[in-house]
Amino acid sequence: MRTARRQNAKPLASLAALAAFVAIPATLSFMAEAADAQSLAAGLLPAAALPTADAAATRATLRLADDALPALLAGDSVVTGVDLGDAEQRASASDADLVCMAKVIVHEARNQPRAGQLAVAQLIMARVRTGRFADSVCGVVNQPGQFFNTAAYEPAREGAAWATAVAVSREALEGAADPVAPGALFYHAAYQAPTSFFRGRQRVATLGDHIFYR
C-alpha cells in the first residue's frame, strides 16, 4: 500500500497545480485543467488510493473545478475575472456590419464580377474611415439618401449570391485585399449619365456596370 501511495505522488502534484489555477483568475489553460479534474472525478484517480488528508483536499479541489467549469464555458465574467461585455458588444457590432454590407452587395452588385462587388464593399469601408459619414458600416449604408434601409430588405440567405456577398464583406471588413477602386467614395451605374455632382469628382475606376469616384 505504501508503494501505491508513492506512485501517486505525481498525480497529487498535478492536483496541487490545479488548485493553484482555481485560486487565480481563470485563463484558457485553467479550462483545460478543470476539464482534466472532471475526468479525475469520474474515476481515473481513485480517492481510496490516497492518504485520507490528501483525498479530502483532492475532493475539495475537484468540487471547485466542477463548479467552475460550466461558468467558464458559458463565459461568466464573475468566475473568470475577465469582463467579456466589451468583447461581446464588438462581436455583435461586427456581425451586424457584416450583414448590412452583405445586403448592400446583394442588392447593388450581385450581378457584378467579384472585383466589382469588392469595390462596393471597400467604398463603404472608406466612408467609415473618412469621418465624413457614419462611424459604422450599418450607419453608412442606412444614411438617408445614400444606400437604403437594410432593415427593410431581406434577401434569401441560401445560395451562391449570399455566400459570395458574405465572403466579400468579410474580406473588406478585415482589410484583406488590395483596393480595387482606390479612394472611391461614390459610384453610379455606367448606363446612367453622370450628374453635376459626379462631373466635379475624380473618376478612379470602372468595374462591371459601375463607375467609381473619389
TrEMBL record:
Residues 112-213 form the Cell wall hydrolase SleB domain. It holds the Pfam family Hydrolase_2. Residues 1-34 form the signal peptide. Gene3D superfamilies: Cell wall hydrolase SleB, domain 1. This is Cell Wall Hydrolase. Keywords: Hydrolase, Signal. One of its GO terms (molecular function) is hydrolase activity. The lineage of its organism: Bacteria, Pseudomonadati, Pseudomonadota, Alphaproteobacteria, Sphingomonadales. It comes from Sphingomonas jatrophae. InterPro entries: Cell_wall_hydrolase_SleB, SleB_dom1. The keyword Ion transport does not apply. It comes from the Bacteria.
